[in-house]
Predict the structure.
Amino acid sequence: MDLVSSYMTAGVGVLLLLLFSMAEVALRQVGKPYIQLETAEQKPSIRSFLLRREGILALTIQIGMGAALLLLGLGLYGSFYGQLQSHVVPGAAVLLAGLAAVVSSWLLLLTIGMWANVASPIRLFNVVAGPMAIMVVLLYPITAVVHAVLGLFSEKEPLNAPEVVGNAVAFQPFGLKIPTAEETLLTPTNEVDSKIFHNALEFKNVKVRECMVPRIEIDAIELDEGVEVLRQAFIETGHSKILIYQDSLDHILGYCHQFSLFNNPTSLEQILTPLEAVPENMLARELFVKFITEHRSIVLVVDEFGGTSGLVTLEDVMEEILGDINDEYDEEDLLEQSLAQTGSYLFSARQEIDYLNEKYNLGLPEGDYETLGGFILSVLEEIPTAGDVVVVPPFEIRILSMDEHRINTVHLSVRSAPAEE
């Protein structure tokens, strides 16, 4: 091989090595989420053509890099040998030319790889997409055979792989870092993580009425009460939003944000923001998507008759997965006390049945209610008065105080079963 042929061979090898190295780095760094999202687009493009054939593309890159290194090595060897054969003995020229070709190829491959790794992978992929499409077509007879042979030893992806990847992308902002074995042993968060994982599994069945703030706990003012009453409501409640109604809570007009007071409004109508309503049997996961896509943070919950059932915020929905999210305005005022007498407790009626059963191992019956007060009402089927006693063996519940029509505090005792004679 003369010097001109050697130079041309080395040049072709450099160009091919540059192309396939860039394609290899780009394909590796863009990752599965980008590939799944790109292939899901209906609009045809060179990128989607390549990524729909990811396996063929990867084999084309490997075969192409092998051919590029071979051409580059031969070209460099011929070039160095042509330069050295007139200065050293033939045996030494062969050895030195081969060593120089190997070192030069390695340095060139390292340089291209380092440059490609610092470049934007998506932009890099867009640059090489056109030439790589041509290479995929030219080398397809070879890659198809190799792909078929390797496919005998590969494991297929699960049928729901695109759905899994899509969910991972959608919830990427809330992703959790997977700890190493050492971090798992040293960090006492296993119980919390397992609880979040369990909540996430159950989240698909949670309905809006299970995570809403009930009607009786809504802080709202009437439209005619004016700006000063609204300002005082913000101070007393610590909320960032206050609902505005007319005549009754069944006619909610919207809400006012605390920041709107900086505009010095003269009436509530000037700062009133409309509030969308959702049914109470709507799935919480559907509402979560609605919050994200429509950039909302609060909606009104209505019952089957169109009356106000409650309200729910983005924080309420997220708490179904992450647990309670407390800020400086949240007050832990729910009574929870174990008395000296065994099996005797003082509870707020707003305590959740699931929580009490888990913490105190009470075994309270579960049903179409969330709280201890809901359990009492389901048994009595009427509004109780202070001093009433509800007996559901082995439980005896005495109503200690009422807040108008709402049960406030109760005394719960667990009677032990009589011993058999």
Notes: The chain has three domains: 3-165, 208-322, 336-414. The chain has a mean pLDDT of 77.
